[in-house]
Give the backbone structure.
Amino acid sequence: MAPKKPKPAAKPAATPASPVAGGGAAQPGSAGGALEFSGEKVRIESVGFAMELPASCRAESNGVAGSPAIQITPNDSTWLINATSQKSAADGSLKDIADAMVKQATEREGRPAELLERSANLAIGGAAAERFYLKSPSADTSKPSLINGYTIFQPLKGQFIVIEVLAAESLWAKAKPAYETIVATATFEDPRMIEQTRRVAVEAGVKLLSDLTPEALAEIVGMSRKERWERKSIAVASGAKGDEEEQAYRRITTWAGKRGEMELTRSNTKMSGSDLEEGYIVQIQARLLLPQSKITGPRPVIDVLSAFFLSKDRKSEAWVVRMTQREGGKAATSVETGARTGDKMSVVIDDLTDAPRTIRPLIQGPGYISRVEAYLLPQILARAKTPLEFGFYAYQSELSRISLRTDSFETVKGAAGTPAGWRLTTKLNPDAKPQVMTLTERGENVQTTLADGSSWTPTTLDELSRLWQAKSLPMD
């Protein structure tokens, strides 16, 4: 069974170009010139894959949740390369996977592809690979045929890296040497080293949470409600808050209370059974601004209410994430409801597109962190005062599964006469872009910088209201 997605390609040149080092080395490239590498690399961290990015190209991540993907395009747009990480339930070899992809393309109904070239048993960057090239007629007979090339690696059992090139037949003479030169720079970290690094990080995470006392967790959460406001914006050259581009705001509240208190609409007088269980609660109310659409009226927004509960013995948890998009007087709501007891978890997702679906993510072995502990992690780390890289297996709504997150915690020296603080660099899954938090000595957020350049910073309701009202942004 072939890995899902890419279309098949045809056979490659007999041998790939030799790998190049970064730092400006030149290799044969498209347009009859040379392909120069500046030293920047594109990566799919989950499988230890890296590949040089030519100076004349741009790269962007365009994968969906749980399926990392990188797209590379040259400045002259003569071709397109997609590198994707895919899984296959089949226990086949690289050759089996390539054979299946070729067969699927050449035997499809309609416009079957023609196999142009096939290379087996390649060695690229010290890794085995298969390659093939296919030509497919265009749906528009007035346009040239398209050529797809595929190079397939298997860095881990059941895990494949597929590097695809797409170009018009008329541009293939330029695209092919550029593609093979770029793919020749592919390297893979030793899977044993990846596993060792992750194991050490997870062991550190297990120790961190096992050392966390109930008293310390209760103090971090607060016996009465602790509230803070944050705004998400993009800074500008002037440095003035009034000039920044507003993107979102959120109110984060924590307290020790009953499970039934998670949602704002629940009355204490109507709670019974498991609703009365004592524990810790994190509640987040957020509003995200969407680009102004053609529909007249208030700017479209997404309102999110997230509430998370963790029992005092930390053996059970529950949560609800309710997301409502409002635009043009219409509202659409999706709800995720989750619960865990021990290592058994169940999540119900209702996005109104179909019947609600239930998933049961697997918690395997030690290292799991609850959603409450994940949100309180900066303060937990600041109490431990241990600069290390920590690893945790955490459920993530964006992926609808449990994934390994890593948190690198380090000391930041304070300016003269000011206390030292902390820096926390978090990757929510191995292929996620990092977010960097600057923290006070007590682990309170000073600034959280995201990969797109936007930042979450502390604010007050008064300041937030003043800024948003001055910019005519919707707060109600």
